[in-house]
Design a protein that fits this description.
- The chain has 10 helices and 11 strands.
- The protein is an alpha+beta fold and 327 residues long.
- The strands form 3 sheets. A 5-stranded antiparallel sheet has the order 1-2-3-5-4, sandwiched between helices. The chain has a 3-stranded antiparallel sheet with strand order 6-9-10, covered by helices on one side.
- The longest helix is centred in the last third of the chain and has 23 residues.
- The protein is globular and about 65 Å long.
Amino acid sequence: MRTRDRFDAGAAAAFLRERFADPAITVEPLSGGNWSDAFAFRHEGADLVARFGRHPEDYRKDARAADWRSPALPVPAFVDLGPVDGGAVDPGTAAGLDDPAGWWFAVTMRAHGTPLETASPAGWPALIPEVVDLIATAAALPYDADLGVGRWDGDGVAPHATWRSFLLEVTEDGPGHRIAGWSTALAAHPEAQAAFDAGVATLARLADAIDPPVGVVHADLTNANVLVDRGRITAVLDWGSALYGDPLHEVAWLTYWQPWQPAVPGAALLAAALADGRLTVGGDVDRRLHACRLHIGLGHLGYHAWNGDDVWLDRLTRLVLADVDPR
């Protein structure tokens, strides 16, 4: 599998001591995501988290999402953003600065809790309505169709005119793609490629027949991106995958990965979401969920081909084939 450069704890501590003019700063490594290394630290009595990565657009999206923070959408307050090699950058002026040659940092307030997907069976009855309300709250955030559809950038602008166009973007590859070369890697696996092609054909048919409402979608509510404590959601982290689209995409995500996250009560979450009128506006729920499932599976077929993970490639090949229309 692919590996990436890491930002180590010593470098993080040295940088933060200088950035905050505080020689007493020490860091605690946190479990990071695919694209960042995260460290907890304290400064002037505050609990903070610093992340280091090569994709500042992800951090700009977090800064934008922090403006939406509310009790129902507890996004950590944003503190600082910039290039590690010096200089201050206003989060509002760093558009298009993804730079694979340089490191960037972001600092937010620290939230405490445990990942949603590790909650105990006894804790889920209280968490299910919290999760549904979180999805509905994000979907109801102010949105203007002029902002576009699909994954938005740090300015809140997305590149597509329709949900269909975004769904079928899953076939695109090229130099500007974060995992450029995935299509070549996938072609080396004939069974996975055949599943991908069949899945795209089904997705295109589904996309022709749906026109869902569009709202803000986090698009990655597992992977330690939602923290919980004593039956309450305490943080919604990492908005790097966020998009404008069908709110049912969130529901599809939580149920799609449930076989590998057995603590997540997928069926109960799905039933609660579909019983909430805020998430079923527009109707055609089964077809919309089907399209979202395929979009998730196809995107991850490409990712795991690029990543060289044959185990997950096989799992996703079977999942995608299960969602292929037999016509």
